[in-house]
Amino acid sequence: MLRAFALYCSTNALFVAAGLQYFHCEESLLGVTTFFVLTCFVRLYFQVPIRPPLKMPQLNSGGGDDLGANDEMIPFKDEGEQEEKIQENAFTERDLADLKSSLVNESEISQNPHAAADQGAVRRSHHDEERGYTDKLREQSEDVSKHQDGGMYKTSPYSGYPFLMLPDPYLPNGSMSPSSNKVSVVQQSHGMHHLTSLLPYSNDHFNTNSPHLPADMSQKPGVHRPPSQDLSGFYSLPPGGVGQIPSAMGWQSQPVFPIAPCGFRQSYPTSLPSSSSFSRFSHSLMLGPPGMHSTGIPHPAIVPSSGKQEHDQYDRNTYAKQHQEPKQEKEPKKPVIKKPLNAFMLYMKEMRAKVIAECTLKESAAINQILGRRWHALSREEQAKYYELARKERQLHMQLYPSWSARDNYGKKKRRKREKQPDSNSDPGSPKKCRARFGLNQQTDWCGPCR
DNA sequence: TTGCCTTTGAAGCTA
DNA sequence: TAGCTTCAAAGGCAA
């Protein structure tokens, strides 16, 4: 029995030493140590399970008696069986190391299981939350790498984007920053010459408080008001309007805007210098009849009622044909007033040529996809410029065509009923829906989560 | 020849 | 009021 006790103590020297250290701070060290050693022996020798402590024994807790030193156990070793015990001891040390390791893991988990679970949940939630963004990021990064767009792309707005953005502070009092007052519409395509025009929106013209504009911008549609002199220079009068356009404002006398290469319509100068400026003038319109209102004032929103292709054909040939074929005079087609362009359309007009040049793409569907992603990648300020331009366009359009309604053009395209497809309006994740979900202003508030 | 594709936003319509 | 539809630009493509 005693021999077995000595043997066990020698083979479990580390364990016993650890137990001694565990109680080394006690006053009655000798009694506690003796009791602990005996208890350990009795428990382990008779295979009574010992519950490991939740906390690891504090080794070398600093100062005090080093009662836990291994040499304390030397008297228990049986020197005659030392070699045999060495191997055993090594084995038990490995077991003890495993036990310590398991205790460490258990301790770490048990110390704050909720925190660990929360951390995991947060990670999962964060991961799920960012998954959509990362998908977009991946798309964008692919797009960036694909198109080698060094300057156009910015750091992804998805990263670190606040979940709920504050209301968009852009355009306080309806005005923009001086830089945003003019939007560069540089179009460069396929090595052609630069086609640079500006949209020098003048606050004098577009500020609702401007004396140039009628005070009652919200006038009832259908009530014609003679347009202001400034506006008459770039927007034709409403069909049937009583206003007369000065002959000097005819297209022949207008400064010619450069013709966009590759058939691209030139981005129109939305801004209006007080003397002579246009809004949404395309090169085709500059050629004459296509956008020519009956008054002789060209306007990009006015196109032949037969549609785009006829419009394009009109651009190229109709002017000459019109002089050769007087038939058209017999059947004057009612001009169609197009919808004012929204912010994204303005952006597309500006950036399309650049994307085409960069990506050597021609299909508008693919280009528009790229532009759509780039649109979302734009900063708030950059998008705000286009929102402001679009807003002014609508104001101007409303001014010049007070009786016009978007309904007027319904059915003009004769579009077939499409199959149900997720679009921007039906997509719950679309910026429009997202703004509505968060109670944000549809035009001015930024929709962060949708970026 | 004409509509589709593809994008976002504005406006109109409907329930 | 929410949800849906249409149109605005653009050019290749298919029927």
TrEMBL record:
One GO MF term attached to the UniProt entry: RNA polymerase II cis-regulatory region sequence-specific DNA binding
Superkingdom: Eukaryota
KW Repressor (keyword) present: yes
Biased composition (Basic and acidic residues): 126-149, 322-334
DNA-binding region: 337-405
GO term, biological process aspect, one: positive regulation of cell population proliferation
Alphabetically ordered keywords of this record: Activator, DNA-binding, Nucleus, Repressor, Transcription, Transcription regulation, Wnt signaling pathway
Claim: Transcription regulation is one of the keywords in the record: yes
Gene3D superfamilies attached to this UniProt entry: High mobility group box domain, TCF3-CBD (Catenin binding domain)
Region annotation (Disordered) ranges: 109-153, 205-227, 297-336, 404-437
Compartments, record wording: Nucleus
InterPro entries hit by this protein: Catenin-bd_sf (IPR027397), CTNNB1-bd_N (IPR013558), HMG_box_dom (IPR009071), HMG_box_dom_sf (IPR036910), TCF/LEF (IPR024940)
Domain HMG box intervals: 337-405
GO CC annotations, alphabetized: beta-catenin-TCF complex; chromatin
PANTHER family: TRANSCRIPTION FACTOR 7, TRANSCRIPTION FACTOR 7 FAMILY MEMBER
Family per similarity comment: Belongs to the TCF/LEF family.
Name assigned to this protein: Transcription factor 7
Organism this protein belongs to: Erpetoichthys calabaricus
Source species taxonomy: Eukaryota, Metazoa, Chordata, Craniata, Vertebrata
Gene that encodes the chain: TCF7
